[in-house]
Amino acid sequence: MTSVLDDIYDPAYAVVDVRTPAEYAQGHIVGAVNIPLFTDEERAEVGTLYTQVGAQHAIDRGLEIVGPRLREYVEQARSLDKPLIVYCWRGGMRSGSMSWLLSTAGMKVRIIPRGYKGFRAHALELISRPWKYRLVIGKTGAGKTTFLYQKAAEGQQVVNLEGIANHRGSAFGRLGQQPQPTTEHALNVIHYVMHCFDIKQPVWIEDESRTVGKVHVPEVMFEAMQQSEVFELDVDIETRVRNLVRDYGAFSHDELCDALYVIREKLGGQRHHQASEFVREGRLTEAVHLILEYYDRTYEFCQQRRIRGIQQS
Fold it and tell me: Are strands 132-138 and 215-216 parallel, antiparallel or unpaired?
């Protein structure tokens, strides 16, 4: 018999998150639909009553709030037209109440044991397994993301951290991207990507720092990446420059200069000024050559530090 958590990504089921909209936005099971029992403000009110007055008063107020909405909850759940998997934060009163209501209305409902908290423990356990990472490294513009796409097209196991984080990792990484998820939700997406992976097969992943934009790579994954087999893409500088001009050339001069400003101190005042002038004049190839001097030095420094770390371990 399978666990409820084994079925959360099965398209035969609809997963329903009954937590508040704010809790859902912070992080949720990928694919889950939010049918909140309480609004953010209502949950705060009920929680305050629970701690300051007592459980019975909190329950009474909760019933007063949700009573007029029972039909709405049922209609929303029914529209999903599938057996349901319901969860709240700990698998307690909120998911239990919604499960009772929807079951009473004739729907098939299962509850995730320990709720979202239990799912998070399950997700972290999966990510913590001894995966055989193959770490793809290479200088800026070498085409590491394209390489990962090719591996995925070949049927290889791939985790694209930059795709999950909606950020390409550099000072220019946010350009053209959707808003970044929270670090919490990024881990949930990693679990979604890896849940069907075979532990015996390698997992291709790009080398990243501890953060991709504002998203933190799970610590256990980052540490495992540092100890993994390394595959370096050795690409000549002219190809790398062409790749970068292709990837970023469509953005406005203002957007590119704003991104350049972020690394002005690392570039140095003169180099930053010159690169900005090249961008504004439309001389992107020259600008990229200049900027790569900084990124290539950073890459070489990181690789030397990696080698020293390996030798010491």
Answer: unpaired
Tell me the domains of the chain and their CATH numbers: 4-123 (3.40.250.10), 129-312 (3.40.50)
**88 part of the active site:** yes
pLDDT at 161 over 60: yes
Residue with tokens 């500088």: 237
pTM for this predicted structure: 0.92
pLDDT digits (tens, 9 = 90+) for 18-30: 999 999 999 999 9
Percentage helix, strand, coil, to 5, in the chain? Answer: 55, 10, 35
Q: Out of 88, 196, 257, 302, which one is annotated catalytic?
A: 88
DSSP code, position 89: S
Query: Phi-psi bin for 213: left (phi > 0), alpha (psi -120 to 50), beta?
Result: left
**DSSP assignment string, 23-34:** HHHH---TT-EE
Amino acid at 245: V
